[in-house]
Design goal:
Elements lengths: L1 H9 L15 E2 L39 E5 L5 H15 L3 E6 L5 H10 L6 E4 L27 E3 L3 E6 L3 E3 L1 E4 H7 L9 H13 L1 H4 L3 E4 L4 H18 L8 H6 L7 H16 L3 H6 L2 H9 L3 E4 L16 E4 L10 E4 L3 E4 L5 H11 L2 H10 L18 H9 L3 E2 L11 H12 L5 H17 L1
Parallel strand pairs: 2-3, 9-10, 12-14
Antiparallel strand pairs: 1-3, 4-13, 5-6, 6-13, 7-12, 8-10, 8-11
């Protein structure tokens, strides 16, 4: 099954993608705080680099110095700490994992760390953020792990810069048990009319089902702007398209243009989500509130991806994905690698390379797949994903019903603008037409900067 997933994805020509989540607060030693835009970065003094000469495929025991990794996925912090312990046990080398929480953008933390000359050796970027780090990232070409995957991030100027640590998918996650109890077939949710009928049925049975709302959807821009402005907005760009279809991202990147008819259909679908969401979560919620509500069975649907539930122990029900079918016939989820780990060029590059090669091996993949619930991007990984969304995710991918992560190719920072349009719509300050016109204006103005 895992091989089918990987072969299907490898056949795609889509550009690789997305960070699932970033946040405020940290676990570990990081004390960074949000900073100004990347354009205000000042030159940082080079960090100490390791001097040991090491074969690319193996990390010699304990002689590569400490490597700091900034983890942007708080939901797998414990597993990342276990990964660091295993790395030290097997190689004698030290990996320090610093985790940022779940309610702000990881890139904001990185900007502050850069300005403070406190850069980690390994950190996470999205594909469209590579240009922000031009000349500052190590070229990983020729490393052993690159022979085990087709998912590495390659930049025209900097070479092979991104190590893929998982494959992810996003759509409307659902609680299959609740849908079954309400008599709603998730396979039927491929038209706006079917979605509307399902929402009416589920809403009428809230007491019977014991749910708070149909949707666990949060449009609060400060804590979850990264989600609405990237993942949800990404559905406008890609839902229903083949993985290599760049129609709407190309239009967007041509001076900030949108297809107003498609955006109107999208707006009406989001309006339906607003109507059938938990008002408290919608306006003033957090990522933790959203995920906890879904796991507790309070919400039938959640606007996240397979990263929000990583272990079978997290839920007592079957999980699945349904498409954002804001036009008739939309039957795809967005799937592909998320953000990438990169090595800071002025950091411990040898140590980072050694860790990447080890991370592509059996011990690390065992932890990342079986414990962290990730889907491996490596061809020779022998472990089947345990993620509760994997079965549904794999069914879409093997059928060819998946779209690309092209939201990661929009102008960096756009999500910080579009998320406020989602928030105003959720608060009732805009109707569907107002959502379209405001979105068009905000996007055009941002691209004009």
């Amino acid at each position: 099954m895992r091989k089918k997933l990987l072969s299907a994805l490898l056949a795609s020509t889509m550009v690789l993608s997305l960070a699932a989540c970033g946040t405020t607060g940290t676990t570990g030693t990081t004390d960074a705080t949000p900073s100004d835009n990347a354009e205000t970065q000042t030159e940082a003094a080079p960090a100490d680099t390791a001097t040991a000469e090491a074969p690319a495929a193996e990390a010699p025991a304990g002689d590569l110095g400490e490597v700091r990794l900034l983890n942007g996925k708080p939901e797998i912090n414990d597993q990342m700490q276990a990964l660091a312990a295993k790395y030290n046990e097997e190689t004698g080398n030290t990996l320090v994992v610093e985790t940022i929480g779940g309610d702000t953008n990881a890139s904001d933390e990185l900007k502050k760390m850069y300005q403070a000359d406190n850069m980690p050796d390994i950190f996470v970027i999205e594909a469209n953020q590579a240009a922000n780090w031009d000349g500052m990232l190590a070229d990983l070409a020729g490393e052993d792990w690159t022979n085990k995957t087709g998912f590495e991030l390659v930049d025209a100027n900097m070479g092979t810069i991104g190590f893929p640590y998982t494959v992810e998918a996003t759509a409307l996650g659902y609680n299959a048990d609740l849908l079954k109890a309400a008599g709603v077939d998730p396979a039927s949710l491929t038209t706006p009319a079917a979605w509307q009928a399902a929402c009416e049925t589920l809403d009428s049975k809230k007491d019977e089902l014991g749910i708070t709302a149909v949707f666990g959807w949060c449009a609060e821009p400060t804590n979850l702007g990264w989600s609405s402005g990237t993942h949800v907005f990404g559905q406008y760009l890609d839902a229903g398209l083949k993985a290599d279809d760049t129609t709407y991202i190309d239009l967007l990147n041509d001076g900030g243009k949108i297809d107003e008819a498609r955006m109107k259909d999208f707006a009406e679908f989001i309006g339906m989500m607003n109507k059938y969401s938990d008002p408290a979560l919608l306006i003033d919620g957090t990522y933790d509130n959203q995920v906890a509500g879904f796991k507790d069975g309070k919400y039938v649907f959640i606007t996240q991806g397979n990263w929000c539930v990583t272990s079978p122990d997290d839920v007592s029900f079957e999980c699945g994905f349904a498409p954002y079918a804001f036009e008739d016939g939309i039957n795809t989820i967005i799937a592909g690698p998320p953000s990438y780990w990169v090595a800071y060029g002025e950091g411990n590059v040898d140590g980072a390379k050694a860790f990447f090669n080890w991370c592509a091996g059996d011990s690390a993949q065992n932890i990342l797949v079986n414990d962290a619930g990730l889907v491996s991007p490596f061809d020779d990984c022998q472990y089947e994903a345990v993620n509760p969304f994997y079965k549904s995710m794999n069914s879409y991918i093997t059928a060819g019903n998946y779209s690309g992560w092209h939201t990661m190719l929009k102008k960096d920072g756009l999500q910080n603008e579009t998320c406020n349009v989602f928030a105003d719509y959720a608060k009732g300050k805009l109707d569907a037409d107002g959502f379209v016109s405001t979105m068009a204006k905000v996007i055009a103005n941002y691209y004009a900067q």
